[in-house]
Structure of Orotidine 5'-phosphate decarboxylase:
Amino acid sequence: MTSRIYVALDTTDLAQAKSIATRVRHHVGGIKLGLEFFCAHGQHGVHEMAQLGLPIFLDLKLHDIPNTVAKAVRALAPLEPAILTVHASGGRAMLEDAKAAAPLNTKVVAVTMLTSLDASDLTATGVQGTPHDQVVRLAALARESGVDGIVCSGAEVAAAKAAWPKGFFVVPGVRPADGHHGDQKRVVTPRAAVDAGASILVIGRPITQAEDPDAAARAISGTL
Ligand SMILES: O=c1ccn([C@@H]2O[C@H](COP(=O)(O)O)[C@@H](O)[C@H]2O)c(=O)[nH]1
């Protein structure tokens, strides 16, 4: 079975990204490239990484007016990413237009509440309710807008999936039981995320910063 792990290659160093991806390729199901990598290497860098033959998750978290996001999605279309992110809080029209502009085989997933935020961060942004409420609310908006799924933490994925059984659920903020959380606040273990209904897990530093990324990816994979 294909691994549910997408390794987040958050680096500006193309050679390092290639080297880590090559080392972990047998224990992951795909590569996640985000803002750091894309700002440094753009579409050329994505093409280079795609040569490794693993599915590409382009995590650009697009968030702007509908016209701008749709045109950005169209500009990214030649890359044919397996997965592309937009922010759910961009609203219904933005989500609809992003999905309409994406290639047929690209899953458009909407980021609900970043895993680096907790309840007090949410309150500070002026949003009423708990992280759970916010994720469930934005998951409903994403489903009604016709995108393919959402990004949320492992703490909310079971509730989101109960309301959207056919949705695609991306869970970052994943740490092995003894793992360092860093800037992540809503964290679960890989096993707990899968048990709760995650379709895929996004895992960066626990693999990329490990002394032996291959062994780290293999160890995490072995818990799933
Ligand atoms: O809510 C979110 C959305 C995206 N991310 C991204 O996932 C990885 C996580 O990296 P770690 O090193 O495992 O913390 C990173 O690329 C984020 O941009 C997220 O963490 N939370």
Summary: The first strand starts at residue 5 and ends at 8.
